Amino acid sequence: MARSSLVVYLSVAIFVLFLLSFAPSQPNRPHRRLKLRSAAGLSAPLGRDRRSVHFDPIIVDIERRRDDREWERSHYFPDGHAPTMEPQPEWKDFMDAEDYINDEAQFNVTHRIVELFPKIDVGPADGFITVDELAEWNLRQVKQELMHQTQRDMELHDKNHDGFISFTEYEPPRWARRLHDDNSSDNKMGWWQEEHFNASDMDGDGLLNLTEFNDYVCLCYILFLHPSDSSNPKVFSWLAKEEIRENDKDKDGKLNFQEYFNGLFQLIRRSDDVHNFTLESDTSAEVPAKKLFSQLDHDNDSYLSEDELLPVIGDLHPSERYYAKQQAEYAVMEADTDKDGRLSMKEMIENPYVLYTSIHTEDNHYDFHDEFR
Fold first, then answer.
1. Which residues make Cβ contacts (< 8 Å) with residue 184, sequence separation at least 6?
2. Torsion of CA 30, 36, 37, 38, to 10 degrees
3. Residues whose CB is less than 8 angstroms from the CB of residue 68 and which lie 6 or more positions away in sequence, other chains included
4. Which of 43, 54, 179, 186 could pair covalently with 59 via S-S, beta carbons 3.0-4.6 A apart?
5. 165 by DSSP, 3-state: which?
6. 3-class DSSP assignment, residue 301
7. Residue 189 and residue 273: Cα distance in Å, rounded?
8. Cα angle, residue 98 at apex, residues 365 and 30 outer, rounded to 5°
9. CA–CA separation, 324 vs 55, rounded Å?
10. In whole angstroms, what is the distance from residue 137 CA to residue 149 CA?
11. pLDDT under 50 in the chain at which residues?
């Protein structure tokens, strides 16, 4: 297996060297000036606004350093001035990052694709990148970024520096407290309750480690983040409980068909690749809705309980994997010139700005997220 992979990449390397030898000094014409994404919004809840994390680790590193710098300013030096006795880093290498990524001598997009290609093409290494391979690569980048931000936030709130977060140590931001106060009469949002903490505390020791703290923050920022990425079954149970709480109009602790149909079914239908529901021959959305309802209603009592909602929690709260796959599907759809459902290195080199779509350009502000909103 290893020998066959080596033969594949030797052949690809020879082809690429041949291709590059005839490439012009500016290989990606017409040249587009790449611009890093605006820092505005990077300091939103953990910087996670469901924008794509870039597939190129160099760009991720540049944006991360800039984000860290702005985060430190806002949390440690809100007046914009650091203590005079404490020297601050100049960050000269990243002050003009846009010049860096637009300098062909420093950041050659073609060379970057050649370098990254074998790192993505791993399942198996056959000289082509599939949607699944690109999605796994995207997912790896975003998970690293999310855990970096969680670690950063944990260090800020870990008052006694023991490497754990207690319930009293994590204080919600002002905007979340206002939201909680606004809904305190029926508590329908479920924000900032101790049950968030208990659901995240997988081992039940009253403290959150890094992984548990990441789950906790995902639950607290449920409108922005993806708690369904958790491996903690207590998190899924809490999400199911919250869906019942949000949609149970008659407050009987479960969902009848109309409550499920009016509140949840349209969200579930977005995941057609999972349930394969179509309305082409149906005159009413109630037909597929009733089909799924009956499948979920295991005890046939005409109601959905928290446990019966668990199979569709991933559809109601799409995971990072879902968005990583969307990003990969878009890239393959746009760059797959021979329409074989995968990307060769040649196709990626000839369509570099599809892969770098999460960086804005002056002449092209299209964002793949618009395709899926």
1. none
2. -120
3. 152
4. 54
5. strand
6. coil
7. 29
8. 55
9. 10
10. 19
11. 21-30, 41-50, 82-91, 184-191, 273-283, 363-373
pTM over 0.70: yes
Dist. CA 361–CA 37, nearest whole Å: 9
Non-local (6+) Cβ contacts of 304 within 8 A are: 244, 254, 255, 260, 293, 296, 297
What the block records as the tokens of 11 is 């052949």
> What Cα–Cα distance (Å) separates residue 339 from each residue in 15, 28, 335, 355?
21, 22, 9, 17
Sign of CA dihedral 248, 238, 147, 87: positive
Nearest to 60 by CA among 162, 141, 175: 141
Strands 129-130 and 342-343: antiparallel
Res 145: pLDDT: 86
Task: List residues bridging with 34 in a β-sheet.
Answer: 361
Q: What is the pLDDT of residue 132?
A: 96
As a whole number of angstroms, the distance between CA 42 and CA 64 comes to 9
Token digits for 112? 């970057």
Q: Return the pLDDT at 70.
A: 79
Distance CA 243, CA 330 (A): 31
270 vs 273: CA distance, rounded Å: 8
Separation CA 212–CA 164 (nearest Å): 9
The DSSP 8-state label assigned to residue 78 in this structure reads T
The residue to which tokens 């959150």 are assigned: 208
Q: Do the Cβ atoms of 113 and 349 come closer than 8 Å?
A: yes
**Residue 249: both structure tokens together:** 């109009």
pLDDT at position 217, please? 81
Q: So what's the pLDDT on residue 277?
A: 47
